Fold these 4 entries.
Entry 1:
Amino acid sequence: MPHHASKVPSHLPTRLAISLWDFTWYTQTTPGEAFADLDAAFGQAVERGYNTVRICAMPFLLFGEHRIDTSALRLTSMGGDVGVRTRWYDAAGGAVLDGRARLLELFRAAERHGCYVILSSWEYQQSPAFLEGPEWYEALMAVDPDDRHRVMADAMSDLVQFLKDHGLAERIAYAELHNEVDLSRLSLAGGGGPSDVYWPQRPFVESAVTRMQQRHPDILATSCYGIPPHLDIAAVPDNGEVAHFHVYVYGVLGALEKWAGVRSTEGFPSPELRSLLRDDAPDVASYEGKVDPWRLSATGVSASMFYSHDWMDTARWDRWLYENYGQWREAMSTAVDERLDVLARHAQRTGTPLVIGEGWVGYTPAARRVRGRPRRAGYRRTSDHPVHRARRLGRRPRLQLGAPPPRLGQRRVAATLEPPPDPGGRLRLRGARPCRAGASALPPSGPGRDRWSVTTRAHG
């Protein structure tokens, strides 16, 4: 059984405070957008206590086999006013970028600010939807499902080599095969599909991660699961050198979506959804044909969901969640406990750091306040609880509440737990206390501080 505790490179900091920049670091680059100035973006991240960013590094686009000119990538919006208030999709469009030069620019800015980068890919999820034409999406779809893991592993390995050739390897925290392999089009490998997104692709994930490790044994390589199979954790390969998982517990948010039919395609919009929309919401028919069919397919987001999020009255949305949260609180806390317990044991058994890269509630409209760490005290317990739970699970945990790009009001959660030297030993925590948003709870310098540290800081 793999045991990777000694594999973590010595040059990495003892704590990674992670801010999720996903693909927005290259889709939102025009004047006034979050990443028009990478130095300013890193400066804001560091000011808020972060030292690591997690990105879609677009490995297939930059190093895959296709005929796309990556020196002049034309980025765009979804079309018309579609996506203007939908998280991730509110890009202005119009930028023309040299993809490889942009990657080097990001890494050099990270170096100037003392930051590190987690390499990932959203290419078999959303990323290709932001290119002006369908070439990127079509090239990805042309790869046989059983070859996709290998192709992504090779592209990511080539990207790592590119960074090494430019003297930037020490800025890499670790490399993921792909974001959320279970929620991506990688899950079609081995005949997989909606009924089982884990076991059919398991050997493909394992082989691809091994392939990355063989190319670059000095760089931590792993996979990433969006809905960890906590009741069947053996479906996750053991060879990842970082146990990277996401923990979303929809609970009351799922209840709202079901009640209002946010994701429905029939009888849309329902009277319940209409009761949550802005007073100036147009007729849903106005969205017909505004987004190219291939672009909708590339995003995995329906026109009805774009409409729901673009025209949601976020005060009404938040009010519904606050008013109904009480009946879901215990179930959501229990669900978090069950998942964290299993994931911590998985990390302990494999001797790997555990990273909760995203969480805790779910996908919400861009302007809402309820997502990762809502601002009202009662509902905020949903995001506080996992942090305290993780503290109790780890002997030497390093926990941070991460955040996305500057100006986006959402929060992301990232937590890493380092297992004890004896995988069979009991996990213990010492030398720490809770802290509140905007504050820092760091033990004094000395042995206590070496055991662990926690920061929770707001972005924006």
Entry 2:
Amino acid sequence: MNSEPAKTAVAEAAGRSTATGAAPQARRPLATVSAAATATASVSAARPAAESQATSMPALRRPPVVVAAAQAIPAADAQPPAETTQPERVTPVPLLRMVMGEIALMIGLLAIGREWWQVAIICAGAALLLAMAAVRIRGQWLSTLAGRWTALALRRRRHDLSSDHDGSELLDLLAPGARVTTAELAGAPSTVITKPEELLTVLRPVDAGVRDLADAVLSDALRPESDPESPESGLHLVLHRGPCRGGFTQPRVWLAVRVRRDVDVLVDDDLRVGLSNLLRKTQKKLSKAGVSVAPLNAKDITATFAALAHVGPGRETLREQWKHFCAGPVVQVGVRVTGLSELPASQRMTAVERLLATVPGVAATVAVVLGSDPADDVAVLRLAAPAPTAVEAAIDHLTTVAPHLRLQLKRLDGLHLRAIAASLPIGGVSL
């Protein structure tokens, strides 16, 4: 009997709910341009409002795109945008140095109640220990510098190579215990450098694929994958550019493919299997990228080491000093480069090119040692010139440019002989 009024009430309530539900849908196209473009005919009246609001919306800022060019390198004095810089890292105080500080304070307490001369000696020792633990010079701990200086003072610092040396003497100096042998790798005869800690072979691009090879390594396209069933492997990329005048010259590139020994794989025969597999994978990836590489023979390897180290006729006398390494009249300085692996993969090659192009008046070599973990990557820059003033001026200039590339440079004073070895394609070198 009351069915008609009830139906009428339900219909009115449904109409009200439909109207209220349609309101948000009618307003929704106002939020974005895409919604306004796809609105149905039922809300076509809202399209002018949507277009007016979409026109008034501010344009979205897009991050700058870094284009890596092979020939056109930005000028050294050009400053990148402010957003590309990052503050210098703050190195935390290691626990060992905190313990050294506490020991220094405890030693100072021993001076209480003693004679004045005993107090002077104890306080001087405590102050020296505290300084070793807390003082930093040019970003390096004083105790680290003291250890390097002591090691440099105790070891032999002058080496005289024979005038007719073939590079093997230099290899013995930079990598003691290394031997150059020949073995079949990836189905072809190859020269293998056998070291106490690893085996490696050196590759170079055959055609004009210098930049493509370096870019493939720096962009992680060739980074070895971690495999618990296989020995640890890695790559060692070296780029070298001699002094140039009037523009940027393309650097020369070498790539060392490495396999390290471990407790499970110690014999050379087993390591050669891993090295052959890694070499085959690397060549396959490069082939897909259009880059052709070939291994160096024994004679070319030793000649390459000597040329990169600036050792030759008239440069047989090698002298290691605190601030320099000298090969005859050529002065060389090694610098550690940090922050390269933290850059986006597309920007690493550009950063390396900028480092090489910033100081055209000196010879520059950049080496990057890569493993399966990017956190373990090591990059070294080595500069060489006939005069110490030229090298020092180049380092000072690079120190001001590096922060704009989001890189940090740290001199390897007292470790320049190791820096020479690390900048050559002879495998990983601890610094």
Entry 3:
Amino acid sequence: MPFNGSGTFNVYTPGNPISNGQTSDATLFNNTISDLASGLSNTLTKDGQTPATANIPMGAHKITGLAAGTTSGDAVRFDEAITTANISTQVVASVTGQTATGTSLIQAASAAAARTTLGSTTVGDALFVTASASAARSTLGVTTDNAEISVTAASTTDIGAAASSNILITGNTTITNLGAVAAGTVRIVRFSGTPILTYNATSLILPGSANITVAVGDCAQLESLGSGNWVCRSYQRFTGQSLISGMIRTSDVTPVPNNAVGVGITASHAFGVVPSYAVLEYLCLTAEQGYSVGDVAILNSQWNGTSSNSLNLWKSTTQVGAQPSGSTVFMLAHKTTGAAFTPTAANWASRFVLAA
């Protein structure tokens, strides 16, 4: 064996070394040449004729003059490696230079696709932890600190394509779709208008399985299910009232109808469904017929001058109303005696109490 296992080449011993005048033995000479050839065949050639057959320890020495890697399996130079000193440079370079399938970041021209792949601009922001974070976000098209972005209400209000997870939807156009984006994408939405969110059991799943008539200031958390389908995980009324449960009291309206035959009272609500319960209240503003200021009377009758009948109430998904029939008008009964009377218009305010 020419090499001793530790890198030392041992010359073939029999017949070596020889002295001047000594006759050479053919067998010994040929064995020496064969040993030299065997040793040379176990070395790495500089022109790359032979590959290494085992790991090569460098003994704490460097490989210098290495060319930059260009394909999978190439060695990486120091200036190509991600280090604390050059992380921001490498991240930005990756964003602007990498286009191959499987790379962790996508070039600037594909920023929209990158945001779709990431599913959330928050994830994109989290990649950048150096002083170059702002520049890197700009390269990806991500809004600094996820600032709220305005999107105009339309039949398809594409909140998935917005470069922020915080969205302000403006306008009043009815919304039936929120656009296609990767499943798991979450958008926090605030409304400055009053559009209707149209319920769909597949593409726009809403609480209560019903349309939502939006009020200014309402907020919602919406999550993409993929393929253009969304689910509303939570919905908060600006007023703090529950979306489809609990009771509400409509705004006070004064004066009330007084001896106005056939004149009804209506009010709007934002349940989005027909209320399950409705009652008409009269709030006393000026003492009358035994009532004190602040007293509330429940209006459940109508008067035609000689007799009373039950009050007719009607309800829809957006409004509620009370309507006298025929020649009747709204009436109350004296607080203590029960005598019927028609309330003085300016002394009372009307309002409805509703439950979804």
Entry 4:
Amino acid sequence: MLILMHPQATLRQTGEILTLAETLNLRPYLSRAQGRRVIALTIEDEPLTARLKGMSGVEEVRPLGSGIKLTSRQFRSSNSVVVVGGDHRTRRVSIGSQSMVVIAGPCAVEDRGSLLAAAHAVRDAGADMLRGGAFKPRTSPYQFQGLGVKGLELLAEARQATGLPFVTEVLSVDDLPAVAEYADMLQVGARNMQNFALLRAVGESGRPVLLKRGMMSTVDEMLMSAEYILATGNESVVLCERGIRTFENSTRNTLDIAAVPVVQRRSHLPIIVDPSHAAGQRDLVEPLALAAVAVGAHGLLIEAHPDPDSALTDAAQTVSTALIADMVRHIRTVHRSLSPLEADPHTDCNGFVAPNIGSRSLDFGCNGKDSDR
């Protein structure tokens, strides 16, 4: 159920609702929508609904529905902004704000030299974060599986050398403690999008999470997977559209470009696009990246390597770090040119406007704190 507080409701009145929920062993989720505090409870109970309606400060109690709850704009009408990094080691990166976030680096960490070369190149090109896989899920068990913990150590060294926070994939609950110890952001890959034990575990880690859409999953299924993470109390979730499997075989996957505005209409979570896995061919990466910018993606995840032809994983779709600077410049040029199209930051979910290029968020959505408390 969704408890909508009166716009003039006091903190004490809101606190009474939260206390009641906790007394009943329910986990309340506090947010803000349409200029007022809202509290979500993931149950529907008629006696409790009647009791809540009679409490001071409550304006309305409505069903939250059987679909998405915590990821919905009904729960939070302003855009969430996920912050990665920002400690003494790294720059602060905000995903979901007005800026276009570029995350670039090799598909897999192969060795110290190539990783550091890639990290310096993407930083100098203007990328905001580094990507690189230490644990790699491969279709064949005989292909390179990544360096494991050694790869995490090399990513940490690259972070120290460049100041770039990094995102890397976690494959299993068993690997999570090691990955969470090193990484600034955890990636749940397409193959694990519905690994519910892993989703709960990464949520409970408290780390920001990048959730990739499954290659044969719908937008609804991706949002429901995000619910598993948010239900742990971890609100730092970024969605990633990386292409889906269709009958078309001219590209590795079919980039569902419409998923970006569809998600933005339905959810407050940021969404970025991975043009590399969608394309499967390096000459298509930039056109797909620019298309993602045009429809309002909050960021891009791009595979880049100093010598892409020799890359041990996904060589065909990996761009050269020698060319990444031009690509980032083109991306930022298109983003700046579309900035006047941004939606009214006060528009609620019922009047949501897409594309939402560089859209601003209310303070509550940006930092997760109610500014009048």
